[in-house]
Design goal:
Layout (H helix, E strand, L loop, with lengths): L1 H10 L9 E3 L4 H10 L6 E3 L7 H5 L9 E3 L5 E4 L3 H18 L1
Parallel strand pairs: 1-2
Antiparallel strand pairs: 3-4
């Protein structure tokens, strides 16, 4: 998913958009190396090495990837969207913000 996420971050660089990742790799140092190699420029939190970490527990996530798309108020509006469906979800919410301005 990294290539798609990179393109989304680049396309929406000047929009009110943030991509946030949560990672549960067991080896945190190896994860840092992979993130550098994959050019992960967005905020990504480490979940303690598994799906029983504090973030996944709080959000009731039992497997990766789990995708939530939140609106400007922090309400989960979409879950499990990927690829083109994720783009459409984000674009829909950005359009709502523009209409409200």
């Amino acid at each position: 998913m990294y290539p798609h996420e990179r393109s989304l971050v680049k396309r929406l660089a000047n929009k009110p958009f943030a991509l946030i990742g949560v990672n549960s790799d067991r080896n945190r140092e190896k994860l840092k190396s992979v993130m550098k190699k994959e050019n992960i420029t967005w905020r990504s939190f480490w979940n303690g090495g598994g799906t029983s970490g504090p973030i996944s527990t709080k959000w009731n996530v039992s497997g990766w990837p789990t995708i939530y798309v939140l609106d400007a108020k922090g309400t989960i509006r979409y879950k499990g969207v990927r690829g083109e469906a994720m783009d459409e979800a984000v674009d829909t919410l950005l359009a709502e913000i523009e209409v409200g301005q």
